[in-house]
Amino acid sequence: MAKQAKKKSVKPTPVAEAPILKKQTKPSDPPETPPVESPRWQMYAAYGITSLYFILSLVGILHHEMWRDEFQAWMVAADAHSIPELFKNLKYEGNPVLWHAFLFIITTFTDNPFWMQVLHILISTSFIFLINRYAPFSHIQKVLLTFGYYTFFEYNLISRSYGLGFLLVILFCVLYQHRHKHLLWMGAVLFLLANCTIFGVILAVSFSGLLVLEYLLQNKKVKGAKIKAGQLLLFLGITVLGVILGYLQIHPEPDNSFPTFYVNFYDSLRLQWTLSRLVQAYFAIPDFTTFYFWNTNFFVPKEDEFFVAIGFVILLLWLLSFLRYKLAWVLYVVATFTILGFHYYSGLMWSRYASHLFVVLVVCFWLMRYQTPSFYSWEPMKFLAMVGDKIRTPLWYAVLGISLIGGIGSYIFDLEHPFSTSKQAADYLKENKLDKLEIIGSTDYIVSPLVTHLGRKIYYPERKEQGSFIIYDPKRLNLWSFDAIQSMALELNEKGQKKIILIRSTPIFMTFEDGQQTPWTEGNLTDWLEMTLIHKVEPGVVKDEKYFIYSIDEVAGR
Description:
Strand order of the largest sheet: 1-4-9-8-7
Number of strands: 9
Strand content: 5-15%
Radius of gyration: 28 Å
Shape: elongated
Distance between the termini: 127 Å
Oligomer: single chain
Largest sheet: 5 strands, mixed
């Protein structure tokens, strides 16, 4: 009798019900769920991959010649002697203060921009560790993402604010798993993100909207961790404050002279450019058949109707892929179309801008693992969701695999070839003891890296004054005038300068009476000043950073 009672006490376990529940809730492809807890060896793998990444990154920056935009941010911070002056220097930059604030701190201790590069790879190494430690991806996916084009090259070796923005995005993703606990920390992260770049503002608004939508849709009858209204309001207050501050810093001054042409109407060519960014962002392999590979794409040699069609197809495939996860789907739609709208409106299409379409993809693929999948009763939607389940992972592997080729290829190319040749131009001046002479530099934004290399300001014809970083205010003129160079040389000569160095980003041509032109090698600039081309520095990967160095000398016996 005791044995029979014992058997009956065990019997109520619902063994037979488990398969039925499984059939009711299982989609055509099992929902992807994050691992509950990472084994210790996975933690060791995260440390190992991160260490390898850091070592390769350190080698990379030791062989990376910084280009003008990297130096621009450095000079903005270096020329500021107080926080108010830093904000003054940023007035025409079109970027918020966060990245420059870090550089401002560094410039109080050193005038060597190498430490900016060190800071930048510490930032990139941090987001690589977070990805490998906390991302709900397979190990192969983590490795592919680690050494992909944006994470291994664009956000790593090139020291800009975009790497810092990506770190904040990854922090948001890490905190999202326990969002009901970390909502205020998430608000702080989005506050900082909105003060990083214009894309940080877009992403901060999109991410905060996601949490508001999740709060509105959460089932209050179901027990468990939920987002609380009070915390959500505080979160929104912090985020909105950050967005407002970021926007106020980014919004162009009415008299800004930066050469960006905004549009508010239909432009078919610009629309083609915009939609081709989807191809560039998701299939990030530069065109390595050209020496000037940066900001190119192997799959988009030109913007035409064919690549617009490909962009549409890619967009539709990802819309299908996220259909099972409604919140991720909404986030993908809102953030992607907002970024595409910014591309169209501003005309800013370079790889570093298009990269944020890839960032949105990473975030959606990450966050959907913590969302409840949806099941549709309507047959067409059920079929589309099933298709999305089938293509999602293969498509994700394709994006990551292609990006891996782009990342490793760009890293190797940058090791073997100079990215910028501004240091070569500065070294020539130093070796020939010309760096202490009066230097005229034009076009200003291309010649500007020499300021940091030489440790001194240069006379910019565009502003008619000495300068370091470029200020895009009304005083700056975009036009090149040979007469202006003549008058500046005469003015400096009258002040006692018998030898002047002129550095041009394009060659100067002699024009004869019959209209023919020939590159200037030597000749009279005025009656008592002669100008001679003494050196030419060919460009590196950055195609327009080339330097023609002329010596303007007083004629002997004047």
